[in-house]
Amino acid sequence: MAELIAVDWGTSSLRGARLDDSGKVLGERSAPLGILNVPNGDFAGVFEAQFADWMTGGARCLISGMAGSRQGWAEAPYVACPAGPDELSSQLHWIERDRIALVPGLSDTQGDVPDVMRGEEVQIFGAMRLAGLADGLFVLPGTHSKWAVVRRGKITGFRTFMTGEVYGLLAGHSILARTLDADAPLDEAAFRRGVARAGEGEGLLHNTFGVRALGLFGRLSPAESASYLSGLLIGEELGGQELPASGEVIVIGASALVARYALALGARAAKVRTFGAEATWAGLMSVARERKP
Fold first, then answer.
1. Could you tell me which residues come within 8 angstroms of residue 186 by beta carbon, excluding any fewer than 6 positions away?
2. Could you give the 3-state DSSP secondary structure of residue 113?
3. Per the structure, how many domains does the chain have?
């Protein structure tokens, strides 16, 4: 297989890696050119400016993430669960045949309500490859956190939680913004306290007001309040999850956020393995290897 140019094109950033036929990373680059920051919607121009020098010698490019959304370069339809790398590979949306393709996202349904992901499915398949797993529970923290179940190499279902977005709204645009320091570093003790409080059954709407009351009575500083609120929200998210019998959970994402989820999961005696950007590159390589001639 020729070199693979693996690209993760999200809402706020653009990242790429050049991989040889074994999946080894030969180079990486990034730019603050997410789909919302593409000048005049010129996706082709941005792609050429960032990666033209890599697209030589028969190299192919696979692009995951929001570039395949309705607001992106072109819309790549969702693939329904259960799905693995082979299903994604068979539904690639080609920008230029056999040269540049968008990887579709996944869809799932709980009851009569649909759920979707774009980009996270590739990270999950990459983590599976790196960890040597065909089954497991995978968590992808973020603005919209994903919890996905994998069985026999396929994502069988997933659920999305607006944890990061709700934290941003509460910390920046509610009355809590007056009593907490959203830029403060993590206070582990306050965070653990919030996680524990979330498990006491009082409910998120009540517990979030408690952040203000604890501050008013001097029982939480502004810095501690931010970590406590984070613990409340992540603890609420974890409260509805059934952990696997093995106790192992795979967490994929940015190191600072992954660390918070590892702390919260540790409070439930879970064994946590973590992955970062390498999961994206390995996942796109997995999809590329399933590509039929």
1. 227, 230, 256, 259, 260
2. strand
3. 1
Q: Which residue has the tokens 């005696």?
A: 269
Biggest CA-to-CA distance, the chain: 67
Question: Degrees (nearest 5) of the Cα angle 2, 280, 183?
Answer: 145
Identity (one letter) of the amino acid at 80? A
| Residue 52 in domain | yes
- Evaluate whether 53 touches 124 at the Cβ level (below 8 Å): no
**Which residue, 56, 57, 13, 54, is CA-closest to 35?**
13
Residue 34 lies in a domain: yes
DSSP tag of 67: G
In the numeric block, which tokens belong to residue 250?
A: 């795979």
Q: Is the separation of the CB atoms in 108 and 156 below 8 Å? A: no
Residue 106 included in any domain: yes
Per the listing, tokens 């409340």 go with: 232
CATH of the domain at 82: 3.30.420.300
Q: Scan for tokens 């190191």, then name that residue.
A: 255
- Joined together, the tokens standing for residue 84 give 């693995």
Does 228 map to a domain?
Answer: no
Query: What is the model's pTM?
Result: 0.95
Provide the token pair at 292: 């039929």
Q: What does the mean pLDDT of the chain come to?
A: 96
Q: Is the pLDDT of residue 292 over 70?
A: no
Enclosing domain of residue 55: 4-131+280-289
